[in-house]
Design goal:
alpha/beta, Rossmann fold, 2 domains, 5-stranded mixed sheet, 7 helices, 12% strand
C-alpha cells in the first residue's frame, strides 16, 4: 500500500497541490495536516506511522514536509527501514535501505536543515536591521485599520451608531470594532486620557 503525507505550516496555506502530486505518484490514501514543521505535535503523521506496515511506501512531496530537522528525519527513516517500509520523496526519488540510499538521505537532510536555519537567520537579521533603522517598525502583522480609522469608528459608536451601521459606513467588522474599542477603553481607564 502507498500512503501519502501532506503538510503545510499555517492554516492559510493550501494542501491541494501536495495532495494532487501525492496521488499522481500513486498514493492510495493521503494523511494531511496544518502544523508548523518545528512542532512535535503532528497527530496525523503519528497516525500514519502507526498504520504503515512492512512493504508499504510512504510518499512525501519534499523533505521538509517529512521532519523538523536532520536528526529527526534520520531517526524516522531508520525506524521505517527497520520495519521494511520504503520512503519516496518526490523531489529526491525513492530512498532505499542501502548504504548509498542512507548517505544520500543524510546529505539531503543536512542541506534541508541548513536552508531552514539560513531563512531563520536572515529573518532575524532583517528584523534587527529594521528595529535599528526604521522608527516605525513594529513586529507582527500590521493592523488592517489605522488608529485614526478606529478612533473615527469609536466616535461614531459614542454618538449612538450600532456596530452594524459603523461596519456599513467604515468597512470595519463588528468583531474588530469590539476588540479595538476595548483597547481604547482600557487605555483610557489606565491613563485617564483618551488616546495619549
Amino acid at each position: 500500500m502507498k500512503y501519502g503525507y501532506a503538510r503545510v505550516s499555517t492554516t492559510d496555506q493550501k494542501l491541494a497541490n501536495q495532495i494532487e502530486f501525492l496521488k499522481l505518484a500513486g498514493a492510495e490514501k493521503v494523511f494531511q495536516e496544518k502544523f508548523t514543521g518545528t512542532t512535535t505535535e503532528r497527530p496525523e503523521f503519528q497516525k500514519l506511522l502507526k498504520v504503515l506496515k512492512t512493504g508499504d511506501t510512504l510518499i512525501v512531496t519534499k523533505l521538509d514536509r517529512f521532519a523538523r530537522n536532520t536528526r529527526e528525519a534520520l531517526e524516522i527513516i531508520a525506524e521505517l527501514f527497520k520495519r521494511q517500509i520504503k520512503v519516496s520523496i518526490l523531489n529526491m526519488g525513492l530512498i532505499d535501505n542501502t548504504p548509498t540510499g542512507q548517505l544520500i538521505f543524510t546529505i539531503f537532510s543536512a542541506f534541508a536543515q541548513f536552508e531552514r536555519d539560513m531563512i531563520v537567520t536572515r529573518t532575524q537579521e532583517g528584523k534587527l536591521y529594521a528595529k535599528q533603522h526604521d522608527p516605525l517598525f513594529r513586529e507582527g502583522r500590521p493592523k488592517t485599520y489605522s488608529d485614526e480609522q478606529i478612533r473615527f469608528a469609536y466616535e461614531l459608536r459614542k454618538q449612538g451608531m450600532t456596530y452594524k451601521m459603523i461596519e456599513r459606513k467604515t468597512g470595519i467588522s463588528k468583531r474588530t470594532q469590539q476588540r479595538r474599542f476595548k483597547l481604547i477603553a482600557d487605555k483610557y481607564s489606565n491613563n485617564g486620557t483618551f488616546y495619549n
